[in-house]
Amino acid sequence: MFAVTETREDIPLNKGKKSESWYSCNEDCLNGSKFVNVAFGTLTFVITVALLVQIYYGDYQVVPHGSVATDSLECSKIGTSILKKGGNAIDAAIASAFCLAVAAPHVTGLDAESQLLIYNHRTRLLPNIIDFSGPTAVSKNLPHLVLSLAYTHQQYGSLAWKDLVQPAAELAEQGYLISKILVEAVSKAKAEDLYGRLEPGQILKHENLSRTLKKIASMPNDELYGYIKTMNQPIISQAIKSTFNSYDIYVPNTPSIGQLVIANLQKVEEFNFTKEDTNKPEYIYRLAETTQTIYGEQNISAKYHEGTSSNIAVIDLYDNYVSLVTGMYDLFGSGEMTTHGYILDVKNKEKPCSRVPFVITDGNLICGRRMVFGANDLSVATQLVTSLLIANENATESIESPRFHVFRNGTIGIEGSHLPAFNEDIVNYLQTLTPNLALISEPYSSSNIVEKVKDDLSSHSDSRGGGIASRF
């Protein structure tokens, strides 16, 4: 029997024969006829060939059944472990979100907001949106993120609630390696009083949080769902669909910033850029110029707040695609640690945050490129979409490309230490828009992606967030 093995994005996949189902994308994207020849072999012949393949080529590996990309290797692996247990993409996203509440406390936590975009490529119906970023979706009994994940589990979950929460509880109890990014976040937010003095490479444990998560994991469904009342329901809607460069783009409807991303992309499309144009400094200049203009015209800074963001991207075997963005109003939220081990987010928020989930599919080929990712604001979203669909960059190249950011006052800044960086010609062009171009210090907002072409999966976690994607 062939074993399904787990891989990470930093360990290349071995080449192997593709696993098949009734919904398999073949070479010409017309039908699932690849398995016709199976009937011609006897059982003995198949076993013999399999043994020979293993002897001569090493462990046999099928095409990945699913992939999860997050800001933490532990959380990506927890997500794929849920898929291996038979869970769907929503289950994996829930488990990964609980894990990030442990492993990335500077950007998310049990009291954080969330937005989910849920799409099934087999039905190709408009994706559903579950938006728990509004002020009404709160409960006195459950922290904000827990309430949103409980509602999502009630509507879409397939595995037991405990199976999705327990891995995060165990991680909090056992501890995880402190990242350089977490140390930088503590320094930037002056949040040393939360966890004491941290050093990269040390183990950080959250004992109170572990106990809280274990209690949450053990809650019966009737008690858990009983906390979901009419007064704290999320905003439920369908995504809006737009076309850009022959691709269908799905983003949340209002009050998300998604519609403004679409408007900005429509302006960019008027330039008729080609892949070759993306190598010229003028290309980045035009992206920055249109983005800067729409920030001013739409008064984006007055309408939206750029908080923290952590993005979970999942694709499962059944072509469920999930993009979950979660975050707080600022690094470490309000900075107030509860006795239950999690940090409270800022209350009485004046405006919604600008984070947005995405699903993009080929508008012509059912089995063409399909991408799941998230972004923290309009400028990052615009750059990611154009790098994927105009520059035709792969998952890793698009996520790791240098980025500019638009500040609240309309000026432009670039990341001061992320590599690769903009070259001197591009920097000079950007300085014509903002003479005193600011260099932004870490930590930077991250975006993670899972991409599918035909039956092949690739994924990448942004080095800005410090994670590694996982596939199995």
UniProtKB/TrEMBL annotation:
Transmembrane segments: 35-57
GO cellular component: plasma membrane
Keyword Transmembrane helix: yes
Keyword annotations of the record: Membrane, Transmembrane, Transmembrane helix
SUPFAM superfamilies: N-terminal nucleophile aminohydrolases (Ntn hydrolases) (SSF56235)
GO biological process, one term: glutathione catabolic process
Superkingdom, taxonomy of origin: Eukaryota
Coiled coil, from the record: none
Gene3D superfamilies cross-referenced by the UniProt entry: 1.10.246.230, 3.60.20.40
Molecular function, one GO term: glutathione hydrolase activity
Protein name: Uncharacterized protein
The organism of origin for this protein: Rhamnusium bicolor
Taxonomy of the source species: Eukaryota, Metazoa, Ecdysozoa, Arthropoda, Hexapoda
